[in-house]
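Work package 3, deliverable 3.1, input record:
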Amino acid sequence: MFEVAELGHTVEKSVYREKSAELRARLLTIQSQLKVCPFSVIIIISGVDGGGKGDVINRLNEWMDVHYMRTIALGPPSDEERERPKFWRFWRTLPAKGTIGVYVGSWYSDPIAQRVYQKIDNNALQNELIQINQLEQLLSDDNTLIIKCWLHLKKEAQIDRLKALAKNPATKWRVTDKDRQHLGLYDDFIGVAEQVLTETSKAHAPWLIVEGSDIRYSSLTVGQHVLERIEQHVLQYNNGLSAAAEAEPPNSRVEQYNLLDALDLSLKLNKSDYRKQLEKYQGKLNELSRHALAAKRSSILVFEGWDAAGKGGAIRRLIEAMDARHYQVISIAAPTDEERAHHYLWRFWRHMPRAGQVTIYDRSWYGRVLVERVEGLAKPQQWQRAYSEIVNFEEAMLAHGIVILKFWLHIDRDEQIERFKRREQISYKQFKITEEDYRNREKWDDYQKAVNEMIARTSTSKSPWLQVEANDKYYARIKIIKAYCERLEKMLDEINK
Amino acid sequence: MFEVAELGHTVEKSVYREKSAELRARLLTIQSQLKVCPFSVIIIISGVDGGGKGDVINRLNEWMDVHYMRTIALGPPSDEERERPKFWRFWRTLPAKGTIGVYVGSWYSDPIAQRVYQKIDNNALQNELIQINQLEQLLSDDNTLIIKCWLHLKKEAQIDRLKALAKNPATKWRVTDKDRQHLGLYDDFIGVAEQVLTETSKAHAPWLIVEGSDIRYSSLTVGQHVLERIEQHVLQYNNGLSAAAEAEPPNSRVEQYNLLDALDLSLKLNKSDYRKQLEKYQGKLNELSRHALAAKRSSILVFEGWDAAGKGGAIRRLIEAMDARHYQVISIAAPTDEERAHHYLWRFWRHMPRAGQVTIYDRSWYGRVLVERVEGLAKPQQWQRAYSEIVNFEEAMLAHGIVILKFWLHIDRDEQIERFKRREQISYKQFKITEEDYRNREKWDDYQKAVNEMIARTSTSKSPWLQVEANDKYYARIKIIKAYCERLEKMLDEINK
């Protein structure tokens, strides 16, 4: 899920100057409207060490009217606070209606730290998260607007940052033993953060993940997100709640992620390398899938991607290596009557594999947040809440020991039109191209935005999205089969440990 | 919370015959409307052994059109089921839109049984409940109507039932070792059930607790509840969701509880006994409260009751025994401006006692589900969700080791008017009687209904409601001070263990 914040975003000084002036004006305007609204705004700024939390908060304070905004920096609890239930310190600092409270150090700080330092186990963490969700639900039921931003830095960036600080005599003092200790725990921290963010991203209180290496980028991104969320909330209040329920939630920050644009589509394999590697990995997969069957561990492989991105071809190369008695390929088209008479996840529960079996989905439940979102087949609330429904669905499978791997096959627009044209010239592939395919192309940007958000919200270490550079089919097929082999190997290693 | 189902409800045969015929006709009518609605209905019948689950389900099947209703009786999972994630068996049996699925043996069965038999710990149970809540939330977001009924039998009734069965040669075989074992675990079972019901009673999927000793009563109560819930859901669907949000949820079963009517208001103490006992318990309380202070364990005492029920007098008798430095009495009137600018629970978090202190509330957060409900000051969704908000609030206190005890002081209408008149004649008490008091009297039945539901939804073994027969002030005061003493003693015993 943090992939979206490891792309090296930066903002030029001149751009920053212009955008921040505009942002500031709009923030002040919306604050003046907020003052008379019967709800408060909570902004939580959290994230990794060195992610620039302090800088972002300082910028927010510069931009906004601090008469109606308060920064709440919570360190270790006071005597007074320790003598009361742990949420007391948060309740006493909650902003009044019409005002904004910015939390640095929030109800998230302790549970994350305690879990990373192994002071609490996973069940205890889960219980902390229930209480957090209850609190946020209660506030949001009372119309409080909750904005949560997570500032992320990749490990290398964190190392570089500490090195740079240590090198400079003027900043050397800022590097403490605790910083070094935290760096050693980076991977644990990210694992816990992923879990916490996944389980506390609700439609009414979603997390925004922001790359923290460039302060101009991160402060502008947070600032604009804050602006849009407040503008929308005020609008919803003024126009009545029923209008609000139909309004599309703001996601304008998400499109800046450019997760797909960051892929290197020039990656390719020549035919002879492809053949060699295909033989190697098909052999490996054959062996591994027999072991998985013996261990009664099922797999679910999800294929999503642009039209003509090569899903079918990639799936064929996988199943060539497997025993037809033990896998099934399910192509998801329009639901049947019977399926339509149930919850949208029902058809996927139906096909749940028995122990040891492999189920390959050519398109999947992610249609809810892709085609159904973009084509307006699902209402905004429906696809918005689908992220957590899907995460819960996959967690039920993970808890049962099922291996999940999800592939997004990415090609660019030029490659797609080339393939469409080629297909139209090959008689047995003509049926694959319809007018709808051309129509879908027109919504490329909307789909791209939806894909970005989907990966940000549903890619977890246990159920990851693999983005596959698929302009070259050979490269894509090998990347996929290799990734599945590695996943199976890892699972089998864990079993045998 | 099970108090409401231990009152000895019965229904006469002739009444049953008449009512069930009427019920049947209405159930068939609503089923014919349901057929064309785009949502399904899930009915969960659960409860204690011998609570008559089978009987109730048989009656439902007799009354309704079984072409559009299916009973799903789930025993131990099959091979097929064990090879899939545990919820698979529920998903495969979910009713299609327009139809009804009646579950006996549901997603609640395993978690409760495993916890009672100590196969899972409390954190693991909590995690099961999260998954259940997620499932019900997901279904209800998809407009599925979820109706949950819990059939309760008090321990004595369960013993009598087993004895009766064992005595009759024709039914002796029905009493198994398992029954006897279950009876031995009755208290554990009830404790777990209380927790499960509390944490899974949501506004969209509340539990109805039904007394199970008389099958005519229980089947009629369940049948009428099912009817009303479906009627309301269909109505909401036909009239649009915004109308639905404003509609009052059905509670007609609740008024049958008669929890307050079951109190024996003739209980009294003569003056000399009162004086003796008061002296005894005040002495005891003085000592106990000093121990509690030393142990840094706070108390929260909540007083609710009819106007003129004697809350003030009872509170005075308590504090006479305590040190003024260590308690505070908080009278809850209309909120201040500042309080109004926050969530309704904020003012109560404010007064959270420091370690070892005692806070006595003369009226409390329960105003949300009493006066605010009855007078229409809170919207139905607001007071409906308040039950779980309040339970969570009190759980935060309990988790911190705070002792909570809640008193409902009950008098009857005649006694109230007597007291009003007496007050008007005593100059220094005249200010206590206003026109509003007379107006409130007119809503006695609405208040009674609200009190019944409040106790059913928020009385737990750790944070119980004590119903105080208060027609006689002496009796009431002693019952209260004694109960608080016992609660403190129990807490101190647990600490010293």
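The beta strands of chain A are 41-47, 69-73, 100-104, 145-152, 207-211, 299-305, 327-331, 358-362, 403-410, 465-469.
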